[in-house]
Amino acid sequence: MRIVPTAESRLGYLFRLSRPRYWHFLGSPVLLALIYGASSASDLTSPAAIAFAVYFLVPGNLFLYGVNDAFDTDTDEHNPKKSEEGKEQSFRDTPGVKAAIVLSGLLAVPLFFLTTSPVALLALGGWAFLTVTYSAPPLRLKSIPFVDSVVNGLYLLPGIAAYITIAGSFPPMSGVVGFWLWTMGYHTFSAIPDIGPDRKAGVRTLASVLGKRKSLVYTGVCWLLAAVVFAQLHLAAALVFLLYPVIDLFIMVEDIDVERAYWWFPTINAVVGIPLMVPGLWLLLS
Predict the structure, then answer these.
(1) DSSP letter (8 states) at residue 91
(2) Which residues contact 213 (CB under 8 A, 6 or more apart)?
(3) CA pair distance 225, 241, nearest whole angstrom
(4) Where is the secretion signal located (predicted)?
(5) CATH class of the domain whose range is 9-168
(6) Domain boundaries defined on the chain
(7) What's the whole-number mean pLDDT along residues 8-34?
C-alpha cells in the first residue's frame, strides 16, 4: 500500500516540495524550545505547544521552500538537484501550487494569537518576513553575499517564539547565538553544490563569491565558534556541536566531493538532535 502519494499528484508534489528530509531543520529548534521551555510535561500538550510543533513541521516547511522555489526558477534550471533525475522537485508554476504556498503561510496567523509576548510576536513576524524577502525581490537577500548567511538564522526564530510562549522568558542567549552561528555555517556549506548553477544564473551568494575551499573554511569557523558558544550553555552541547567542524575538516583534508557530502547532513542533523532532546525530556518526565 502506498503511504506517500505519487509525485505526479498535486498532494504528492506539495509533500515533496516541502522537503521532508529537511523538516527537522525548522521543526527541531521548535521542539527543543518547547522541551526546555516547559516547566512540566503537561506544557507540551498545551494548545500553543501543539500548534507550534504541527505548523513548523509541515505547513511552515511548505511555505519556506515553496517561496524559495517560486523565485529560484532562473537558477534551478541549471541545478542538477532539480533535474528529472534530481533529489528535489522542480517548481510547478501553476495557480494551485501558488495558492497552496500562500495558504501554508496564512496558516501561521493563529500562532500570533497564542502568545502575548511582543518579542515572540516579533520573532514570528521576523520569520515570515525573512522567509519571503530571502528569495523574493526587491530585497532577495539570498543574492547579497554574507547577508545570505546571516539571515539564515531565520530557522531559529520560530524556536525563540515557541520558547517565550511556553516559558514566559527569553531563551538562553548562548543557545540563540550558538544556533545562529551554526545556521550561518550550514547555509554556506549547503550553497557550495550550487556554486556552478548560481554563477551561470548570475546570482551572487557568499559561497559563489568565496569558492569551494574558502567556503569550507568559513563554514568550519562558524561551526567551531558555535561549539565554543554552546560551551557557555552546557559542555555536553558543545561536544555534540564539535562534530560539525570535525566533519568539515575531514571533507577538506580528504577532498571529498561536497555535492556528495551535502546529502549526509539531513541524517547527521537528525541524529545529533537526539542527544540534545533526550536530557530535556528525561527531566520533564522524571
Answers:
(1) P
(2) 252
(3) 10
(4) none
(5) mainly alpha
(6) 9-168, 172-261+275-281
(7) 92
What's the pTM?
Answer: 0.93
Spell out the SS3 assignment of 165-192: HHHCCCCCHHHHHHHHHHHHHHHHHHHH
248: amino acid identity, one letter: D
Which has the minimum average pLDDT: 7-16, 48-57, 61-70, 78-87? 78-87
Query: Whole-angstrom Cα distance, residue 231 to residue 209?
Result: 32
In this structure, are residues 88 and 19 in contact, taking their beta carbons and an 8 Å threshold? yes
Cα–Cα distances (Å) from 263 to 22, 81, 90, 251, 267, in that order, read 11, 11, 18, 13, 8
Give per-residue pLDDT as tens, 56-76: 999 999 999 999 999 987 666
How many Cβ atoms are within 10 Å of 258's Cβ, its own excluded?
20
Residue type, 167: A
Residue carrying C-alpha cell 539571515: 151
CATH number for domain 172-261+275-281, candidates 1.20.120, 2.60.40, 2.40.50, 3.40.50: 1.20.120
Cα–Cα distance between 145 and 108 in angstroms, integer? Answer: 29
